[in-house]
């Protein structure tokens, strides 16, 4: 991967965390790094600068990471609906991870961060990007991480088989 070509936006209310992330990014060769202190400022930065990857904190005042990701994915004036978003958070509970996924984030990185973690997440969103899907109430990367080639049924969720047979045949 040519890290020197990446343009990254860091959104975090903690200046020290932004500085740490920026140092890790510079160490791997990223040259263009933009910073914002919250989601409101982050949206303005997205409008003012083309970026390839967004890294945002989950917990911020004014506009938290979930609101920020939802705004990127669903706002009529979003400058880039499909920009890869990596959420960085000290709250790494299953609930927090699922909330970020359901908001439209591509990846989740738990704090404390490591250089390897940052590199892995960037590599994942750039080199192994998942397709984007649009369904009622959601736009973002496909939440399924893998496709099962042995899956022959028309539905993908447990309980779908309980639907009327006519609906299953149409699916």
TrEMBL record:
Listed GO biological process terms: phosphorelay signal transduction system
Keyword annotations of the record: Phosphoprotein
4-aspartylphosphate sites (modified residues): 57
Chain positions covered by the region annotation Disordered: 143-171
Gene3D superfamilies hit by this protein: 3.40.50.2300
Highest taxon listed in the record's lineage: Bacteria
Domain Response regulatory: 7-126
PANTHER family documented for this protein: RESPONSE REGULATORY DOMAIN-CONTAINING PROTEIN, STRESS RESPONSE REGULATOR PROTEIN 1
Name of the protein in its database record: Response regulator
């Amino acid at each position: 991967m040519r890290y020197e070509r990446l343009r990254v936006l860091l959104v975090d209310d903690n200046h020290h965390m932004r500085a740490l992330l920026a140092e890790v990014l510079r160490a791997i060769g990223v040259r263009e790094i933009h910073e914002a202190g919250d989601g409101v400022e982050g949206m303005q930065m997205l409008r003012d600068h083309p970026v390839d990857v967004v890294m945002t904190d989950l917990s911020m005042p004014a506009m938290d990471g979930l609101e920020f990701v939802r705004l990127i994915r669903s706002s009529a004036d979003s400058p880039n609906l499909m920009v890869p978003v990596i959420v960085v958070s000290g709250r790494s509970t299953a609930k927090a991870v699922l909330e970020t996924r359901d908001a439209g984030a591509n990846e989740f990185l738990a704090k404390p961060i490591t250089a390897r973690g940052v590199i892995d997440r960037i590599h994942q969103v750039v080199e192994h990007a998942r397709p984007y899907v649009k369904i009622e109430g959601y736009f973002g990367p496909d939440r399924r991480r893998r496709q099962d080639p042995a899956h022959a049924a028309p539905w993908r969720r447990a309980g779908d088989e309980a639907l009327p047979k006519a609906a299953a045949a149409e699916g």
